[in-house]
Design goal:
- The chain has 2 domains: about 90 residues, Winged helix-like DNA-binding domain superfamily/Winged helix DNA-binding domain (Arc Repressor Mutant, subunit A), CATH 1.10.10.10; about 120 residues, no CATH class.
- The chain has 8 helices and 2 strands, in the order αααββααααα.
- A two-stranded antiparallel sheet has the order 1-2.
- Strand 1 and strand 2 form a beta hairpin.
- Helix 1 packs across helix 2, helix 2 packs across helix 3 and helix 7 packs antiparallel against helix 8.
- The radius of gyration is 24 Å and the shape is elongated.
- The two termini are about 25 Å apart.
- About 25% of the residues are buried.
- It holds the Pfam family Vir_act_alpha_C.
């Protein structure tokens, strides 16, 4: 998330001071990404240094107002016009965690997938409830929440895929070892039995039903 451009967007239609910019940003995004007020003022100082905003006076309560400059407006609309590249997004910690988990002996990969799926389903239900309470006119907040709903659904589907891949890898490892046991770390880790195909099928079915339940009656 670009705090810099978020603040420029807040100043695009008028002068604001820091707390106003934070409140308006959280309102526009459904309060899904709260901003620290210290971060707001630090960013405003950098924007002023770079000539993208300028002070616009103070009120009786000594709030320092800022206005966007021509250079700032040009930067903002240039940002709107640029696609967001994959390189600009943070690393996917979950993908990295699972990539490492399948390479470390004794790690219960199935338990990691189960815990993450449970978390993703709970988040999906929370986002869906919040979206259902929004006024239809709150387009900006609705778009953000829809994005988070879709991301949660995609994560659940990907976790189902991961579980199936881990099971398939365990089977393939077993068949390549003539008369040898499957590598327990491939799916469950040392000391535990790997889940069966039936287990994976059941979990996938349950997560699919849970996803549908979370969104039932609350179509986007």
């Amino acid at each position: 998330m670009s705090v810099k451009h978020s603040l420029l967007a807040g100043l695009a239609d008028g002068e604001r001071y820091g707390y106003q910019l934070r409140a308006e940003f959280e309102e526009r995004t459904g309060a899904t990404w709260p901003l620290n007020i210290g971060q707001v003022y630090t960013t405003l100082n950098r924007l002023e240094r770079d000539g993208l905003v300028e002070p616009a006076g103070q009120d009786a309560a000594n709030h320092v107002f800022y206005r966007i400059t021509d250079a700032g407006r040009e930067e903002l609309f240039s940002w709107f016009a640029r696609p967001v590249t994959r390189a600009e997004r943070p690393r996917d910690e979950l993908a990295v965690k699972l990539a490492l988990a399948v390479t470390v002996g004794g790690v219960d990969v199935a338990a990691i997938v189960h815990a993450q799926r449970k978390h993703a389903l709970a988040a999906l239900q929370d986002y869906t409830r919040v979206k259902a309470r929004l006024d239809p006119a709150e387009l900006a907040a609705s778009l953000v929440l829809e994005s988070m709903i879709f991301q949660s659904e995609a994560e659940i589907r990907w976790l189902d895929h991961v579980e199936a891949r881990v099971l398939r890898h365990a089977r393939e490892s077993q068949t390549t070892r003539v008369g040898g046991p499957a590598d327990p770390g491939s799916a469950k880790g040392a000391g535990g039995a790997a889940p069966t195909d039936a287990d994976a099928s059941t979990r996938t079915s349950r997560s699919t039903r849970a996803t549908a339940t979370a969104r039932k009656g609350k179509a986007i």
